[in-house]
Amino acid sequence: MLSKCPHSGHRVSGCVLAFSFLFINFADGSSGKSSQSQDEMHAIHTNQLDLREIVFIIQSQSNSFHVGQAERRRAHLLEQAQSLTKKPPVVLLLHRLSDNEGDWSILPLLPEFSRSFGKNSSWLVFLEEETNVKMPAFVQVLAKFDKNKEWFVGKPLFDKESTIIHHYAFAENPSIFKYPDFAAAWALSMPLVVRLANKVRDEPLKSDFTIDLKHEIALYIWDGGKGPHLTAAPELCTEPEDSLRAQHCATTLSKEPTQCGEPVKKDDIFVAVKTCRKFHNERVPVIKRTWEKDAVLLEYYSDHADPSIPTINLGVPNTERGHCGKTFAILQRFLSSHVPNTKWLLVVDDDTLISLPRLQALLSCYNPSEPVSLGERYGYGLSQGGYSYITGGGGMVFSREAVVRLLDSGCKCYSNDAPDDMVLGMCLNALGLPVTHSPLFHQARPEDYPADLLAHQVPISFHKHWNINPVAVFNKWLRDNSSEKSSHELDRTAKTEL
């Protein structure tokens, strides 16, 4: 097993040498070769694009579950490659390229990619852990494009309406701007990588928020119209790999479920709901009508003790923003004798809609003895030594070990109204503990995301009650029947409810 590469100016280059040596030996082996049709073999050998010209980068994470997922994806890519050629591509795991946890934002790494691969490679290809690549078909897709020109290729997504998660970009006509669905894989030609790398070196990236990376990368590449738009490749798909619709696809999604065994027991999850007096009659009833019934251990925390709900006053005054004081009081209560000793803590807002059965299934993939912090990952100042954090509205999940380490470190709020999710992110970063991202948690409402993105998800949460019927949204997107449904099925069965 290769260790993390040194954090230096040559960190990617050093990784490449080690990876390349490993892969050449692996490819020369005689075992584990996949069978390929004569047509596929002919297509590869007659194609102008050599596999060595492609650098695959799996957008991996350092949590043990995700490392395993990424390693299996890398092995599958190399297994295909060795049946086609003895000169395999480079396949890298993003989380191992440096010690900088924030490099999941990719743009800061472009100068390193340019230095390491600019002369001998033609394409950088990014894919997620669940992205299945059909190597022969994928190579043929890239071969359609002139590798000496600038290309940004992927499966396009777009906003039907301007949305807060994209800072209301292109408000007059948001559908004109396309950005890639990372799950389908996306590619940058090397001339584009080299130019972008020079731009990153000459104009330091802004030290601001990273909210939706795929949209923000597309904006950076587009550069106000000076750079290329995303070019659609119909063969890059998010269909399940065993679907009939996937026959023409060069990429598909793994059919493996987001469950790794028996779901976590209900009494292994303690649920903490943050509310305040003014929302007792408006938001709490929504929770009681939707997802509260699936919780065994749940408490509501407010600035007012109301026995009819009931709510608990932790002695922290309500604040109009931030709520850091309240959240840290919840963390302390979680470790106290006032609540049962449970493996997982879920902290949600009173306008969060969540599927606890789906969360139970997802948590079966994680080890609660590790310091796990799970949710929708945002970033602040990642290119300037910033930090990642779980955005609070979609739900923040912590293993007991993570809470113990956070509080033992002396981490605390600088004020009661400090942003709790960001303060927790700073503390985790100082401790060297990663934030683990799941795209199934959502900080906003369903209509704030492209329908094509939600179509291949079974979402766990949504947030905000603005201009929606939250009960209807829960029934459409998050309510489970006896068997799990895909988002397509949920959409069809719930139309009458809306």
From TrEMBL:
**Annotated localization:** Endomembrane system; Membrane
Which Pfam family, any one of them, does this sequence belong to?
Fringe
Domain (Fringe-like glycosyltransferase) ranges: 115-198, 263-472
What InterPro entries does this protein's entry cite? Answer: Fringe-like_glycosylTrfase (IPR003378), Nucleotide-diphossugar_trans (IPR029044)
Main localization of the protein described in the UniProt heading: membrane
**Per the record's keyword annotation, is Protease included, yes or no?**
no
Annotated membrane topology is: Single-pass membrane protein; Single-pass type II membrane protein
What is the protein name given in its UniProt record?
Fringe-like glycosyltransferase domain-containing protein
Residues of the signal sequence?
A: 1-29
Q: Which keywords fit this entry according to its UniProt record?
A: Glycosyltransferase, Membrane, Signal, Signal-anchor, Transferase, Transmembrane, Transmembrane helix
Which GO terms fall under molecular function for this chain's record? glycosyltransferase activity
The record's family statement is:
Belongs to the glycosyltransferase 31 family.
GO cellular-component term (any): membrane
* Matches recorded under PANTHER family: FRINGE-RELATED
